[in-house]
């Protein structure tokens, strides 16, 4: 997928290098799909009750909650679907990264849980950031459409 010149150091065992090369695209695809499915799973209850997080989002300073709560639900649920299938991958990854960075703030600062509370959100934000930078690969709807942001 990448247009960047491969600068990896050659493998000491050439057969292993061929295996890594063969698994490069499938591994990235699996990461994108798992990330998307995890976001869909996390966002599904919010889609069922899109106004259920009004108190939480207003507690974080996002007013009016009646606007931000459904936006949160849609971002997690539909952003996850878009990531999983690789459609509008960069915009979906950008939106979900913003949500995840807010959850880092929520757990680390607001809930005073520090790194231990924010760890999952940090990891997921790093994964979604990867897809902002990288976009989708050839195993995606973006690729099938011949378009990528």
Automatic annotation (TrEMBL):
The chain crosses the membrane at residues 66-85, 92-109, 121-137. InterPro entries: DoxX, DoxX-like_oxidoreductase. The keyword Transmembrane helix applies. Its main location: membrane. It is a multi-pass membrane protein. The keyword GTP-binding does not apply. GO terms for cellular component: plasma membrane. Keywords: Cell membrane, Membrane, Transmembrane, Transmembrane helix. It is found in: Cell membrane. It comes from the Bacteria. Pfam families: DoxX. Belongs to the DoxX family. This is DoxX family protein. It comes from Devosia geojensis.
């Amino acid at each position: 997928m990448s247009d960047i010149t491969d600068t990896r150091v050659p493998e000491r065992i050439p057969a292993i290098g061929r295996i890594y090369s063969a698994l490069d695209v499938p591994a990235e695809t699996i990461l994108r799909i798992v990330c998307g499915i995890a976001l869909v799973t996390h966002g599904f209850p919010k889609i069922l009750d899109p106004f259920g997080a009004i108190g939480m989002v207003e507690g974080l300073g996002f007013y009016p909650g009646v606007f931000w709560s459904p936006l949160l639900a849609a971002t997690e649920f539909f952003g996850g679907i878009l990531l999983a299938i690789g459609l509008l991958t960069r915009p979906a990854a950008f939106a979900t990264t913003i949500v995840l960075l807010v959850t880092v703030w929520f757990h680390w600062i607001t809930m005073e849980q520090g790194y231990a509370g924010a760890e999952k959100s940090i990891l997921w934000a790093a994964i979604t950031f990867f897809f902002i930078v990288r976009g989708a690969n050839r195993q995606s709807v973006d690729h099938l459409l011949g378009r990528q942001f």
